[in-house]
Structures are given as structure tokens and as C-alpha cells.
Amino acid sequence: MRKFLKSLLGKPIAWLAERVSSSPKKENVSRSLSRLLQRTGSGKKNKGSLKLLDINQDKIIILSDQHKGTRDGADDFKSSEINYLAALEHYYDSGYQFVNLGDCEELWKNAPQKVMACNQACFAAEKKFENKNRYYRVYGNHDLEWKYKLQQDIFLKPVFGSKLKIYEGILFKTSYNNEAYYIFMAHGHQGDQRSDGNPLSAWIVANIWTPIQRYLQISINTPATSFALTDKHNIIMHDWSSAQNNLIFISGHTHKPVFASLDHIDRLTKQLQQAQKNNNQSEIDSIQHELEKRKKEYEGKQEVITNVKPCYFNTGCCCFNDGDITGIEIADGNIRLIKWRLENNVPKHIVLEQAELSYIFEKLG
User: Fold this and answer.
1) Residue 243, Cβ neighbours under 10 Å: how many?
2) Cα-to-chain-centroid distance, residue 123
3) Number of compact structural domains in the chain
4) N or C: which end of the chain has fewer CB within 10 A?
5) CATH number, position 133
């Protein structure tokens, strides 16, 4: 019976869950992000942190949207844990700073104490970064409780230590060719009327969606789910960041990885246009084959963008239903979109996209 109901109701229920949890409006998102950027840059208490960044020396990994749960049928993270732990071990040993960019824990569905008890290995791996002053934690909409000092003191600081700080945004300041540039990081739920502290959405997820998900074991974190909506939100965040001066914006929230303002379909389309311009038939055939393979994956995508300012990046998530995780690396003067996935049951690090930060900075002008 469960299998039958899952096949019958899986897609409409997942679609409904996405509709309930997200509804961005451009003016609201822009206003909220602008306010947060200003507060972060000014060092306003508990809003954000301003840090200096040497793009040639410092190394940062940005991961988000783990949605750590309680190992039941509603836990979207459990299949990704092996890749997540392998990634953290690699980045710790390689001297990276770690930005945990929100929705780290799933607190719309679960009580904090249960999540903390069920994810001790992950917290221990994260704490190693905190012990070396290489850990930055940002809250999102699904772990909004971490915004409050009382919740931090009860649940997080006994694990991470009393010096742990949690912010809404982080701003890294760097320089290139004697000019200041900024890399701004926030979860990305700001201004989304159904995600930005909306108690109704949280109640619906906790009391309606979660019991159904636990029983049917449905995940909404497949790339085929509601891309029209996530396109809209990513485009809004790109438009906001493109209006800023000398600024790169890195967010999560949408669960859809974006590199230099282009998702994978956008990038393939751009490559196809160049191959057609060069009359390179073998490359045209190869790209068209790749686009066809991903047609189902990006079902519902309504806009293809190929000529944009490369100011916006999205980490994707650490809870894809195939166990893969994606993130953004900054290292060796480069910025990269990366994936960790299992190959022969061994976690493997894969670079999906890469560009020199100097190139990105020059294109921001």
C-alpha cells in the first residue's frame, strides 16, 4: 500500500510542499538583502561579520542546506552523510575555512534536542573547524531557532563551545588591482514571504507534510522538482547582486547550484551557441546529447540565460536524494562549484565549474 501511495501521490505532494515553503517577490528580496548587506558591513551585532580575505592564500568551502534530521523517513540528509563527512575531513586536513550557510539542521520538522542527538558525528566534524577558528555558521529559515541566544546556549554551545557565533550574513572584503571587492554570503531566504520567519509555513511542514513524508518516504530534493520556482528565486537574487558594486553574492536556500549566474542548462546552452558559431558539428552533437539527457532533470525550467553578469553563486545543497552534495570552494585564487558523490562506494571530489576570481572581478565592472 505504501509503495502504491508513494507512486500515486509522490509528485503532487512534493510540488505542494515546495509551493507552501517558498514564494519570493523581487521587491521584498531586494529590500531584505540590501538591509542585511548594510548591517553586515557595519558590523551590527548578531547580524553579520566582516572579514578580510586574501584570495591567493585563504581557502574557504561553503556548504548549505544539510537539513540534518532524525534518521527517519522524513530525514533528507541521511543518504548524504557519508559524502558530507568525507568532504569535511578533506577540507579540514587541507586548511580550509568552513562557512555553514544555513538550514544546517531541519527544525521545522524536528525538535532541536532530537536533531542534536542523531547527528553527533557531523557535529564533531564541524567542531574541529570551530576549534581552529575556521568555522562560520549562518542561520536559514529551517534552522531559524539558532538566531536566538537561548536556543544557542541550550543546544549548540554545549557542543561547539561558548565562543561559537551565529550570523545572518558574512561579508568578506578583498582587493584586486588596488580596488576593493566583496564576497557576501547569506542563506537566501531573506524576503521570501513563506520562508522568512513565517510560522504558518513551519506549522504546515511540521504537522502536515512531515507525517506524510515519514510514511511515504518522499524526498523533495531531486533536481526535477519545481525548477520554475527556484529559477525565479535565483534570478531575483542574481538581479539584486548585479545591481551592487564590486560584489559577489553566494547563497543557498533554493537547493539548485548556480555558478557565475548560470545553472548547468544555461552553461550548456551557451556552449552550444559557441559551437554553432564555430560550426563545430562534433561539439554540437555532444552538447545536444547532454542537453537531451538532462531534459527530464530540468523539467519545468522556464528561462534560459546565457549573457549575465557573473555575480551570483548558489551552493546547491547537501541533501540530494541520490546522496550527492554540492558546494562552492574558494582556493588558490579560484572559485569552484564542486560535487561530492559516491563512486564504487567511495566519496569522490569533483570540480563541476571553475574560474579565476580575478576574471570574475574584471567582469563585475
Assistant:
1) 12
2) 19
3) 2
4) N
5) 3.60.21
Instruction: Read off the pLDDT of residues 86-134 as tens digits, 9 standing for 90 and up.
Output: 999 999 999 999 999 999 999 988 999 999 999 999 999 999 999 999 9
Quote the pLDDT of residue 244.
96
Amino acid at 282: S
Distance CA 66, CA 157 (A): 19
Dist CA 64 CA 327 (whole Å) = 7
Average pLDDT score over the chain: 84
- What is the distance between the alpha carbons of residues 206 and 153, in angstroms, rounded to a whole number? 24
How many CB atoms neighbour CB 332 within 10 A?
Answer: 14
Tell me which of 92 and 5 has the higher pLDDT. 92
CA distances, 107 to each of 65, 203, 327, 347 (Å)? 12, 11, 22, 27
337 and 281 belong to one structural domain: no
Task: Give the pTM.
Answer: 0.80
**Alpha-carbon span 16 to 194, nearest angstrom:** 13
DSSP state of 318: S
- Whether 119 and 172 share a structural domain: yes
Regarding whether 167 and 45 lie in a shared domain, the answer is yes
Shared domain check, 343 and 202: yes
Among candidate residues 128, 112, 115, the one with its CA nearest the CA of residue 78: 115
Residue 239, domain extent: 2-261+309-363
Residues 100 and 249 in one domain: yes
Q: Grid coordinates in use for 164?
A: 561559537
